[in-house]
Amino acid sequence: MSLKLTLLGCGTSSGVPRIGNDWGDCDPAEPKNRRTRVSIIVESPTTRILVDTSPDMRAQLLAADIIDIDAILWTHDHADHSHGLDDVRQIYHHRRSPVPGYAKRQTMALLRRRFAYAFEGSNGYHPTIHGMDLPDRLTIGDISIACTDMPHGEIFSTGFRFSHGDRSIGYATDFHEATPAMDALFAGVDIWVVDALRERPHPTHPHLSLTLDAIARCRPGRAILTHMDQSMDYATLRATLPPGVEPGYDGMVIDLAQGTRTD
d(Cα 205, Cα 213) in Å, to the nearest integer? Predict the structure, then answer.
């Protein structure tokens, strides 16, 4: 069995560097510190799923040389996770049919309101996305998906566990508390991609210590940090994180069939 992960982006809502060439504590000479907004691809040999449509989606998919998408999942409706949605048009043209898109009911309702033309069509243009409410469990192609609500300030984000045979990938971004339901969902995954915004506490995101505590409880095979701001320098983190935990970077690829990664 094979399951492949691509980190399209691993930055916070403003990316790294921030506008104004604000690199913060990140070394601008290290390419892995240049971070676009968070998004991933999970794929098997027959199925490819995109999680979130970030504002950097076009550049991310060009860099990954990807256009074949079988479905899109949204974690929530915040701009850094959804405002690249218009670029789904090119995937639609390639497929010649609307792309199946899933989100929890409240998130889907907000996306439909904001991007009505993409879901309903407008002025002679066909809809580009077939939007559906996301159940707690579903199968897309040959990938099984389980999900849970994660508290994110006053709203909820959706966390995902993707499984194909005996391989599994967890994805948890945009939460401020690790709940028992999250611990149960992500326990023992081969790879867990998990939010670690910064070292200082934040009201709607996990700080590094909170994330490391959750990793210790869930005991994934490997943990990959994402949604990092300009205070999280790649080399510094790499040198100080515990075994089995590492910072992610844009373009990181892990193939669970071979246990390899591609820079």
Answer: 14
Long-range contacts of the stretch 87-93 (C-beta < 8 A, 24+): 87/53, 87/57, 87/58, 87/61, 88/53, 88/118, 88/128, 88/129, 89/118, 89/128, 91/67, 91/128, 92/126, 92/128, 92/129
Contact 4, 44 (CB under 8 A): yes
Tell me the pLDDT tens digit for each residue of 137-169: 999 999 999 999 999 999 999 999 999 999 999
Nearest to 40 by CA among 70, 12, 68, 73: 73
**What six digits make up the tokens of 128?**
């580009």
What are the angstrom distances between the C-alpha of 247 and each of 22, 77, 149, 154, 188?
20, 25, 24, 27, 19
Taking Cα atoms as reference points, which of 239, 248, 163 lies closest to residue 211? Answer: 248
Q: Which two tokens stand for residue 207?
A: 């700080």
Residue 263 maps to a domain: no
Omega of the bond leading into 28 within 30 degrees of 0 (cis)? no
Amino acid identity, position 121: G
- The predicted-structure confidence for 65-111, as pLDDT tens digits, reads as follows 999 999 999 999 999 999 999 999 999 999 999 999 999 999 999 99
The answer to the question of residue 133 being in a domain is yes
- Domain boundaries, position 246: 3-256
- Cα separation, 151 vs 113, in Å, equals 23
